[in-house]
Amino acid sequence: MAVWQSPVTLNSLLGTQTVMAEVNVLVVEGMSKVMPDGARVPNLAKEIPTVQNGGVSPDGKTITYKLKEGLVWSDGKPLTCDDVKFTWEAIMTPGVGVVSTTGYADIETVECPNAATVVIKFKKFFAPYLTLFDDLIIPRHYAGDPKEMKNWPYNRKPLGTGPFKIDEWVADSHVTLSRNENYREKDKPYLDQFVIRIVPSSEVAMQLLSTGEVDIMWNNTEADFPQLEKMANVKTSSPLQIGGERLFLNMAENKDPSDPKKPHLILSDVKVRQAIALGINKQRIIDKLLYGKARPGTSELNAGFFECKDIKPYPYEPEKAKKLLEEAGWVLGADGIRVAKGAKVAPDGTRLRLKYSTTSGNKLREDSQVLIVEDMKAIGVELYIENAPSSVVIGTWDGASPRRRGNFDIIMYTTNAGIDPHSQMTNLWASWMIPHEGNKGGLNYTRISDPKVDETITKAAAEPDPVKRRDLYCQLAQLTYDQANMIYLYQRLDLDSYRDRLQGWVENAWDNNAWNAENWWLK
């Protein structure tokens, strides 16, 4: 497989690189894994703990896992509950630079009544409990002192239970893996060796795929389609990505810092926000810029178990958009741009002019802006573009990020709710997550504050039954869809390509390419 990122570390507690995960998925495993349809299935655990099977206590605060029989690490030593306990201890060791302790910090104890039983006791119910220990368990006997994590040999050569083990990692060149002879599935994996080749660019990867020097090209874009379609014996993997590109509309005043209690002169009116949503021709963006290979955006929950299938994209209805703007007190001026005349907050004569920002240097986003500016002009809304580097747009409060501090009208970028929407739904919609001087880490960038939304979030967070949680989250997604504080533009494809001699490939947008590599073989 050709990749064009070079790993900095292979310890996922210390890094977040996508390429690191592409290596680790071959080696490191956890309690469960996610299938292409978003369903979670057991991996090292015998079954997924639920309230129904007794694996989750009625209050949701005690989770019990039973490990599969005979599990061993690739060095032949047994995997036990103590390794799970060690993983938690390592994550919670102060000062070692772990990327995130979210969820793990809510655990009170990890207990081992026997080697094959793991009992996790939470201080309070943590709704996405299945996301903990789901892709990582670290062997105590191999890793070393958690306080010395930055110097662990594990960081360059993780030991796991997956189908392959790492033989060699040469920086900026390759990672070579070989068959794990202690893998728990009889006669698997079928392949003897797996080489991840680190190349300078996607162009080089494309050339190597074309000549057959590599079997897989990682991380294609839509612009690769014309070339890929001409290649003999090459297939494209293209499941829909989770999440997608969207516009964040600021409902509070545009000021640095914003007072979240003061309404935005223009965007605080729901009719204006809905008009903008109806005035954008999403399909034009998809057809012109994404080779028709995307889907119009729907809601925050657009894939997997928590998908809200009843929520459809805002249709392109410019005439209805114009009518809503008229009703909201925005009348056409002489130059075709609307001005306030009886609007909710804006003084009469205020021009319907909004700043539209995204991360600079991203051609797809910049080209999308051009089309959206045209769409808005057609309904009497003037957008002006003011982009900035991602380090600014996506930055921190103290780094003067406009989305944090509130000095913006519209910002565009991509995010997703992940396999469990608990954190994302809380972060983006809860009133207590609105950023301000006393809450600099808040992530509710649109500054939405709605008692019904807050109530629904609180109910979902306290519900251990995943089906009931899904119903509540879909109620929440509908509430926010109606508010139009975010406008979902498109849901892209998760693109990779491979030579057709590779057999057993299964598309899975929830995981990395080699998520099922134990089933791969070469024709």
Short description:
The protein is 24% helix and 19% strand. By secondary structure, the chain is of the alpha+beta class. Strands 13-19-12-18-16-17 form a 6-stranded mixed β-sheet. A 4-stranded mixed β-sheet has the order 1-9-8-7.
Task: Describe the protein.
With 523 residues, the chain is α+β, with helices and mostly antiparallel strands. The protein has three domains: 1-25 and 162-239 and 495-523, D-Maltodextrin-Binding Protein, domain 2; 28-148, Dipeptide-binding Protein, Domain 1 (Dipeptide-binding Protein, domain 1); 244-321 and 351-492, Roll (Dipeptide-binding Protein, domain 3). 24% of the residues lie in helices and 19% in strands. It has 14 helices and 22 strands. The strands form seven sheets. A six-stranded mixed sheet has the order 13-19-12-18-16-17. A four-stranded mixed sheet has the order 1-9-8-7. The protein is globular, with a radius of gyration of 25 Å. The mean pLDDT is 96.
Described by strand count, sense and barrel closure, the largest sheet is: 6 strands, mixed
SS class: alpha+beta
Number of H- or I-type helical stretches: 14
Question: How is the CATH topology of the largest domain named?
Answer: Dipeptide-binding Protein, domain 3
Compute the number of strand runs.
Answer: 22
CATH architecture of the largest domain: Roll
